Amino acid sequence: MYSRRLLIKKSLLLSSLMQTGVFKTLMAASSMPAIKIGACDWSIGKSSNVEAFDVAKEIGLDGIMVNMGGPDNDLHIRHKEVQEAYKKASGRTGIIVSSLALGLFNQYPFHSDPRTQDWIKYSITAAKNLNTKVVLLAFFNASDLRNDASRKEAAIQHLKAVMPLAEETGVILGIESYLNAKEHEEIMDAVGSKNLKVYFDFRNTADAGFDPVAEFKKLGKDKVCELHMKENGFLLGKGSVDWNGVADAVYAMNYTGNGWMQIEGAIPKGAETVLSYKHNLAYLRKLFYK
């Protein structure tokens, strides 16, 4: 008789949970993937523009990587009123600010521009205010570090100067460059901060002449903060990056990083952005949401 009463109580409790939605929430949480999928705001046509949230929602993304802007708009993401607009848009759409990017270093040399440290500090503070944990530092074009020891040394000194603020706020600075794993590790070792990591882009690594999966494995899961999932001029799965190999490596390494991967580029010439990104998103979810 006691067992029957207990069974009835459990049945009533389960029924109640299902009716209130708690059961569905618990079940969803148990199958929730470790890495969410966002996109770079510049890749969806809304660089440093609050309208990126609406485009991201239409695509079905979880978040967006936000470009800090440049000297022409005074890195406007650093200003409180702009941050409030971003917070409001995030709350309205459910799209998260997943990380920030200082792409301006592609035009302004990281190693020699006198504003370098200020720009990084502005971005660290903005990341804290927007409740995000990663700031990408781009080292291409004007800031390319390949085969230039003096540029590397100058970059190391700038990074050493800003790392105390990054550590204090809990923000990770991510180096994105054409360097290989060994060269990235040399810079991280020289700077000597756990808050400096690599922002890994599989397409860039391949373009630099390296095996992207092998380089990713060499770095290991603890030295990579976030991932760019990119093709140039092709949808994901239609170019030359071995995305199945990438997925296998991510699973084998138990990599989660900061919890995000960002789609970048991956639009054929003349193709429509939203449709292309819906394809890219579905492709990644099939690979990673197993």
Total discrete domains: 2
Q: Uncertain runs with pLDDT below 50, 5 residues or more?
A: 1-15, 20-32
The Cα radius of gyration reads 21 Å
- Please give the order of strands in the largest beta sheet: 1-2-3-4-5-6-7-8
Which structural class do you get from the secondary structure elements? alpha/beta
- The CATH topology assignment of the largest domain is TIM Barrel
Number of beta-strand segments: 8
Q: Ends: how far apart?
A: 44 Å
Query: Secondary-structure element order, as H and E?
Result: HHEHEHEHEHEHEHHEHEH
Task: Identify the CATH class of the largest domain.
Answer: Alpha Beta
CATH superfamily membership of the largest domain: Divalent-metal-dependent TIM barrel enzymes
Residue-averaged pLDDT: 92
From the coordinates shown, what is the CATH architecture of the largest domain? Alpha-Beta Barrel
Percent helix, as a range, is 40-55%
Write the layout of secondary structure elements.
Elements: H1 2-20, H2 22-30, E1 36-40, H3 52-59, E2 63-67, H4 80-93, E3 96-102, H5 116-129, E4 134-139, H6 149-169, E5 172-177, H7 181-191, E6 196-201, H8 202-207, H9 212-219, E7 224-231, H10 243-253, E8 260-265, H11 273-288
Parallel strand pairs: 1-2, 1-8, 2-3, 3-4, 4-5, 5-6, 6-7, 7-8
Helix pairs in contact: 3-11, 5-6, 6-7, 7-9, 9-10
